[in-house]
Amino acid sequence: MCMESLPDELIIVILSQLSPYREQGIAAQVCKRWRNVIADFMSSRERKFEKSIRRGRVQWHELEKDNSIKISSRQDMSVCYNDETRSVYVFGGISSANAITGFNDLLRLDMHTLRWTREPIRGVVPPPLSRSVLVSYKENLLLYSGVHLTEQHPFSPPGLTRVSNQLYLYDVNSYKWRRMDFLEDDCPPPMYEKASCVMVRDRDLEMDAFYLLGNVDRNSPKCLWSLDLHTFTWEQQTLLDGDQLEILTRADPCQIYEINGTVAYSSALLVIAILPSQLHACLLLKTSYNEWRCQNVNLSNLPNNYAVFFKRMLLSSYKIKDTLALLTVRPSASVDMMNVRCKVRAPKLLRSSTVASSSPTQQLCATTVGTGHPPPLNLGPEFALAVDFITLFLLDLSDISKESTTLKWVVQNDDPRKMGDVADTIEPCFTCKCTVKHGTFVKGRGELILIGEMRPRNASTIPVYVLRTSC
Question: pTM of this prediction?
Fold first, then answer.
């Protein structure tokens, strides 16, 4: 039987086994039918991944150490994924060993070969910066703001701070940096605790926009700015009733996400802040050209047994269609974990272009930890190096587009009749051992990628974990 005689459903099954980062693109050039089949499959990939993650049919993978290039131990770096090159980019940061060494190099992780490279340096290169905003837009990377390594020179003009408000663009095809200069009154001031997102095709402005939310100083409320990605002009936005919401008046870290399908408004942004033992959220609803109405959003409470996962700051988060994935991290030896019962999965090992599972550690399906009684957790010798757990929680966003003011947790347990439903309780089953305390979530092609911060004692490479649909 030849491939031409197979139905499209079977061809999709066969071609879905190819790498989405390169091999499916090559297969799409074979014939028109394959191109159409792969195009349909790619358009539904994110929705299928959302369905898999809600049903618990996912598996963590850990990328093996790549010593092909030397990467100095660093923290507070900026991360994003660019689909033009099918790669994850990491910029800058400061040394994990000392606070007087900074970086301005651009590292690239090819998601097909799973190999790190250091990108060429051309054009006007940014200075060493940490905590910058790095986002991807078509063939460009946008690098905004960040903290300079040292204080300004004593003879510098007054008013300058360590926080930058400079915008740089990097072309992933020409490997060239360029600096975008603006007049002082035509761009945002230096901001602390920034959050950003790219809104493709703002329906009100008929443009692609980059939105930035942050605090000018520790005592000021948050302000919102937009950047037209066609003309590269900034516009300050007005937040109506923003002073009435705690999440917008405090200088706390937060994330913002575009909400699609709102009924009465052309655009909407979800602002969410996960602080130790506190969860806050609000909606920004666009009412006119540059005005946004602020609306509080309630979050259903977590059971007491699982509130311990949120006693630390949120590790990272990412929006997948109508689901918000929240990643928390907790020490394995934490005393307050004794009364928590959940399953800890060992990550499978990811090698270059392949997945290997020959090691006994990788062959573990799940280990139940937490018996509800002393002594503290004992995970066994296979978890001797696991100093932390990462646990994934899911929030349902589907009702937000219907002007609902409450977010509910997605049920995660072993009962297939309840998995993926929406309820006020949660039983986390996406707990995995890891070697990171800080990291950033980015979205690849039908998977989530966690780029962790390096630790001085194992600083040979950047730790990478990938959450994929399980077989």
Answer: 0.86
